[in-house]
Amino acid sequence: MPLDPKVRQHLDQAAALGFPASHTVSPVEARELMFRRRALLPSAPEPVARVEDRAIPGPAGEIPVRVYAPSEDRNMPVLVFFHGGGWVIGNLDTHDMVCRALANAAGCLVVSVDYRLAPEARFPAAAEDCHAATAWVAEHARSLGGDGSRIAVGGDSAGGNLSASVALMARDRGGPPIAFQLLIYPVAAADFETASYRACAEGYGLSRADMIWFWDHYVPDTRDRANPYVAPLGADDLSGLPSALVITAEYDPLRDEGEALAAKLSAAGVPTTLARYDGQIHGFVSNYTVMEQGRVAIDQAAAALRTAFGTAG
């Protein structure tokens, strides 16, 4: 399918601004660039009933989290959300709008996790933070207005990777119990030679060079890149994991690995839905204010969460 006209317009506008690519600057500069790009998007954050910033215990100190409540109801199911950004960039603010949208559409609490970033903290720091945060939420959900027996994990890009990693960790470590994993164009392997990497190497936002740069910062020792907690596609056994929705984009270097992960989950007996959004690029969901299919994907994710939580209908 041709590139969505809204996506093409967005890419053309971004190119006209002349921002440097992430892989050509330092991590600190790349983080600032992400803010500058986000600031150019139409900004109309959805109102929610409550937003609360907290700090919870983690393996290397406190982890900042942000709680979004769509209502003042108690005992709501909870989505623990991990932001994208190649494990190097992004934070609670860069994904504020999508967390609000998911909370409202799914009717659940969303707890967004500000895990440690690379290169200051390399693998497995982010994964360990995310698992610790999920375990804390499961144990303390009641204090947030949530139900600790109905927990999902989810995120986009590196956040999708961390969601899959946490699901594996929870299975292997005996908890916490997770009901569902929402994997939005997840990083699943360190293979830069897939067909989608070759076809979408540059010109579609996220580039092949950017991804190599992200991997080099988060997992510089290539021997560690086979670890299933950073490359879930390479896991020997994916059985016993929570059901999943995997969202991919046609013009995304990560398309093939996300779809391969969905296929491998299904083959392992994990109920899995794969949804490829044709004509879209990496990041279309968090850019839903300018890319209409991003809103469609949020609504699909919300419907899947409601089904997993038993609140559909």
Which runs of at least 5 residues are low in confidence (pLDDT < 50)? none
Major sheet description = 8 strands, mixed
- For the residues shown, what is the average pLDDT? 96
Number of domains: 1
Decide which structural class fits the backbone: alpha/beta
CA-CA gap between termini:
33 Å
Order of SSEs, N→C? HHEEEHEHEHEHHEHEH
Q: What is the CATH-assigned architecture?
A: 3-Layer(aba) Sandwich
Shape: globular
In what range is the share of β-strand residues? 15-25%
List how many beta strands DSSP finds.
Answer: 8
Count of separate DSSP helical elements: 9
- Spell out the CATH superfamily: Alpha/Beta hydrolase fold, catalytic domain
Strand order of the largest sheet: 1-2-4-3-5-6-7-8
Q: Tell me the helix content.
A: 25-40%
How is the CATH topology named? Answer: Rossmann fold
Walk me through the structure:
The structure is a single chain. With 313 residues, the protein is an alpha/beta fold. The chain has one domain (5-309): Rossmann fold (3-Layer(aba) Sandwich). The protein contains 9 helices and 8 strands. It has helices spanning 5-17, 27-39, 96-106, 125-144, 158-173, 195-199, 208-218, 255-267, 292-309; strands at 50-58, 61-69, 76-82, 109-113, 146-156, 180-184, 243-251, 272-281. An 8-stranded mixed sheet has the order 1-2-4-3-5-6-7-8, sandwiched between helices. Strand 5 (146-156), helix 5 (158-173) and strand 6 (180-184) form a beta-alpha-beta unit. Helix 3 crosses helix 9 (292-309) and helix 4 packs across helix 5. It is globular and about 50 Å long. The model has no long low-confidence stretch (mean pLDDT 96).
